[in-house]
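Let's study a protein:

___
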Amino acid sequence: MSRNSLSNEEKIRYARHLNIPEIGEAGQCKLKAASVLIVGAGGLGSASSIYLAAAGIGRIGIIDSDFVELSNLQRQILHDTVRIGMAKVESARKRLAEINPEIEIDVYQERVSVESDKSLFKDYPIILDASDNFDTRYVLNEVCVKEKKIFIYGAIFQFYGQMSVFDATRGPCFRCVFQKIPSEEFAKANQGIGVVGALPGTIGTMQAIEAIKLILEIGEPSIGRLILYDGMDMRFQEIQTRKDPACPVCGTR
């Protein structure tokens, strides 16, 4: 079936989308023709990929180098007990195919680093960050700035989360806002301290909604806005962010 039209089965599958004026059949065809790359198949990647697959994003890429462990299952809903020991990308492929067999799923079992083959990113206009470290995010940001791609950022810690959209053609890049890599001591202090299981669901679905809006070109994406979520007190806070002229990645100086 062409990506420019919907089959009868797809019209039934996406009926609730087709009833939304801002989406409709034309919008659903845009989602069907879209490609999104998700970097990380953990907590954030679980929530975002499941909802993007269910929404009918035509091509989803997943990058992750890890294997499913028992300790993942408290929050990483892509995986289950019978898949312990399986590569996360293969577990993700199976789960997403079960949710929506109509879409294309590409998987890459590797860790993103400065040495990564940047051709991995070329077919994906939107890169969704579901990683857990600043080194990976800096690499993704540089790729997105250079190739004029959109970077949807998400981060989680205990009961707290952050989310933003970075598009250097319309606002700041990730490096403008997060200028320095946290110290090794800070990084070690935050490893293993924990995250409440439902939190990546909150932030990951927010990332998925932003991806859908960007594909459809509707609404107001969180470009130039860093959204802070406090799950303990159930509060949201918004911080305005600006392009840094001295940014080493996107700055004009």
In short: The longest strand covers residues 150-157. The CA atoms of residues 220 and 229 lie 18 Å apart. The first helix runs from residue 8 to 13. The mean pLDDT is 94.
